[in-house]
Target: ABC transporter
Amino acid sequence: MSAGPTLPAVDDAVRADGLTKRYGRTVALAGVDLTVPAGTVHGLLGPNGAGKTTLLRTLFGLSRPDAGTLTVLGEPVVAGRTPGGLAGFVDSPRFYPYLSGRRNLELLAAYDRRGHDDIDAVLERVGLAGRDADRVSAYSSGMRQRLGLAAALLRGPRLLVLDEPVNGLDPAGIRDIGALLRDLAADGGSVLLSSHHMAEAEALCDGVTILRAGRTVHAGRVEELRAAAPAAAHLLRTTDDAAARAMAERRGVDVTEQDDGLAVRAHRADLDAYVLALASDGIAVRALTETGSPLSQLFFALTEESA
Ligand SMILES: Nc1ncnc2c1ncn2[C@@H]1O[C@H](COP(=O)(O)OP(=O)(O)OP(=O)(O)O)[C@@H](O)[C@H]1O
Model:
């Protein structure tokens, strides 16, 4: 892949401090802080309307903030200009639907005054080799996401910014793209991606910034989040739910009755011990399903608590 523009090394690929953006009466960003350490994959998380897209648009110079400071790869972002060394997409990647994936990449390379030498390599890297001659109109949504990533990689970016890049991808696709993003970070590149899903971010990212109503409500490494997360929630059904509930109470396991069974909140070791105790008391487990991973619960707690 061709090298990106020569820019000085930086500690943080992105730094936003107190970024504010209003659309009339709507406050899309209410003083957001965001740091993406260089050489990491960072997730920007938040529910619908939290301000993720607005923040990504300001990074690309597509939207001018009303207040705050923003640097990308050490340089202040100027509205109307894509920062040097940055590539990616905000909203869905766009292509000429009646042209092939390869032809779209060729046009992009020509626009950037680059040769076509890297096209085969990026098609291979995103898993589109063999489908590159098909028209984009015949691509699945996951294939379009992959082509969007190919287009960004073609620019040899030092910072890749991707708006919901694994939307529409199957689990194998998510795994492959995750591996690709990790390789980029291992080579010193940086990645910022947006997502609605904590589980997705947990699988892909080193660190996350969580937005709610235009504000940063959490920023840190995924391991720190894991350490702070509550016990997982489970739905339990047994041959005798009343006896199972009584036993949970005796053992100090957090259990509540629901229409469809018992809601149990417990860390893994406590849950295992409880299930074994049920069995030894002759209470058979008919179903035990995790209903909310610890990190997902933390995400909901951070983004849904009243403002
Ligand atoms: N061009 C615009 N004009 C007016 N309001 C806007 C505009 N763009 C965004 N907003 C508003 O700003 C707020 C933040 O929107 P934004 O699209 O940044 O959120 P998001 O986190 O990306 O949401 P989603 O997950 O639904 O994509 C919302 O209230 C939205 O309605």
User: Anything to note?
Assistant: The longest strand covers residues 12-23.
